[in-house]
Write a structure and sequence with these properties.
The protein has 173 residues and is an alpha+beta fold. The chain has 2 domains: 17-118, GMP Synthetase, Chain A, domain 3; 136-171, no CATH class. It contains 8 helices and 3 strands; from the N terminus they run H-H-H-H-E-E-H-H-E-H-H. The chain has helices spanning 17-29, 37-40, 42-46, 48-51, 88-93, 95-106, 136-145, 152-171, and strands at 54-60, 77-83, 111-118. A 3-stranded mixed sheet has the order 1-2-3. Helix 7 packs across helix 8 (152-171).
């Protein structure tokens, strides 16, 4: 019996997710975001209901004029949100909650006010659409392929998966 050790991981190979923040940071910095954290975690910060109708556009940092003392306390920024028209009033009422959630997420008093801009959201629901169920031919063929499997749950799951794969293969041009 030949034993092979597991392949060594190359030092330069990393998951793609580790590069997302670094790739997005320059574009987000133009809009006042010091990091991609607010954009990437907006659904968790705002909550599912509010995140569906508003999105962060930019953070406006107060200017530091020549009269500002170097040791003066920094003023908090303004979070600019794009809100779908009908939900602007609700977002305005929930602004203190949003400020608290963003500041809690970041760990410091970063945001002091929320400014709303009405307009259509650039992103919509990111959840993938559920594919249509497999046709009857594909479902029968998949069920026949997994008929020998004893576990009912596993057999059912494999039959559903197989039916979709067979439908997809037959639908390909």
């Amino acid at each position: 019996m030949n034993f092979r050790p597991p392949p060594k991981r190359r030092p330069w190979s990393q998951p793609l997710a580790e590069f997302v923040t670094a790739a997005m940071s320059p574009a987000l910095a133009k809009n006042g975001f010091g990091e991609a954290d607010i954009i990437l975690n907006w659904d968790e910060i705002a909550g599912e209901r509010l995140a569906a109708v508003c999105e962060p556009v930019k953070i406006q940092w107060p200017g530091r004029g020549p009269k500002t003392a170097p040791d003066a306390k920094a003023e908090p920024a303004i979070l600019v949100l794009r809100v779908e028209g009908a939900f602007a009033l609700e977002a305005q009422h929930l602004a203190p909650v949003l400020i608290e959630r963003v500041n809690g997420h970041l760990g410091w008093r970063c945001i002091g006010r929320v400014a709303l801009r009405q307009g259509p959201l650039e992103r919509r629901d990111a959840r993938p659409k559920k594919p249509p169920p497999p046709g009857p031919e594909a479902a029968r063929a998949a069920a026949a392929m997994v008929a020998d499997i004893g576990d009912e749950g596993l057999r059912s799951a494999l039959a559903r998966l197989g039916g979709r794969v067979l439908s997809w293969q037959r639908a390909k041009p």
